[in-house]
Amino acid sequence: MTAHNLAVKAQEQAAKIILAAFALISVLTTIGIIFTLSSETLAFFSEVSLREFFLTSEWSPLLDPRHFGTWPLISGTFLITFGAGIIGLPLGILIAIYLNEFAPKSVAKAVKPIMEILAGVPTIVYGFFAITVVTPFLRTLVPDIEVFNALSGAIVVGIMIVPMVSSLCDDAIKGVPNAIKDGGYALGATKFEIITHITIPAASSGILAAFILALSRALGETMAVTLAAGSTPKLTLSFFESIQTMTAYIVQVSMGDIPHTSIEYKSIFAVGSVLFVFTFGFNIVANLVIKRMRRMWTSEIN
């Protein structure tokens, strides 16, 4: 074996070791997060019963008498996520379809970088935008809406996830082979039929993956929701009222003068564990759906 081959082999071995080290770091980080959440959560449940935490609907851990029913935080979190999804997901995929199928190349090249810049705007800026622009506008339409409200939070989070959805959907749609589209045109299909019956189904796994990442982002959004939606834990389905999400509560307690050994401090780990379980379960189910959709589309082509 020549010296050159030995050098190449050594470089490949070093690359494998470095990549394995990075993979190990990610695994150890995940284990550390799970361990930290689990240990503090178990300490919390040694003082608060599971029945009170999951089966009651009053959340006031910072006031006497204390109540630890987590459903107001769960409902607030999913209210924001649902509203953001209604706004951001359709808008994002429509932008991706326009850039791929209708926009001139010069327009597409200009718009996509701008959309990606929007994805880098700090979330607290979106929060200030919500309380200075979105909420005053909503109050002109609905005078009875509260100053801090779920609708304003859902709108800004929906705007935040649009760049992610459009960029990922754009990549998924670009991955559809032109030969499949050309076959549709050869059979006399219109552009609308090509988009709805060929392009979107063929890119469905990538589009769904974009939706999952975007909803996960909305589920864990913190500062924009804290500023826009307020910090009133309330079990409600109304977008016109002030609510509090799980992440907003974690921020509220983490920024205060709460002793680390207190039940209030431990409660943020219990709430974080619930959020982690929801996010983890959501991603597992979504990945199974993506694999199923990919298999279905592959079998239809074959």
Task: Spell out the key features of this protein.
2 domains, 12 helices, MetI-like fold, mainly alpha
CATH topology of the largest domain: MetI-like fold
Report the strand count. Answer: 2
Determine Rg (CA atoms, Å): 24 Å
The CATH superfamily name of the largest domain is: MetI-like
Shape: globular
Major pleated sheet: 2 strands, antiparallel
Oligomerization state: single chain
The structural class is mainly alpha
Tell me the layout of helices and strands.
Blueprint: H1 3-45, H2 50-55, E1 59-60, E2 67-68, H3 71-102, H4 105-119, H5 123-141, H6 150-174, H7 178-186, H8 191-202, H9 204-219, H10 223-229, H11 246-254, H12 263-301
Antiparallel strand pairs: 1-2
Helix pairs in contact: 1-12, 3-6, 3-9, 4-6, 5-6, 5-10, 6-9, 6-10, 7-8, 9-12, 11-12
Q: Could you please describe the fold and organization of this structure?
A:
- The chain has helices spanning 3-45, 50-55, 71-102, 105-119, 123-141, 150-174, 178-186, 191-202, 204-219, 223-229, 246-254, 263-301; strands at 59-60, 67-68.
- With 302 residues, the protein is an all-alpha fold.
- The protein has two domains: 3-46; 71-301, MetI-like fold.
- A two-stranded antiparallel ribbon has the order 1-2.
- The longest helix has 43 residues, at 3-45.
- The protein is globular, with a radius of gyration of 24 Å.
Summarize the structure in short:
This protein is mostly helical. 77% of the residues lie in helices and 1% in strands.
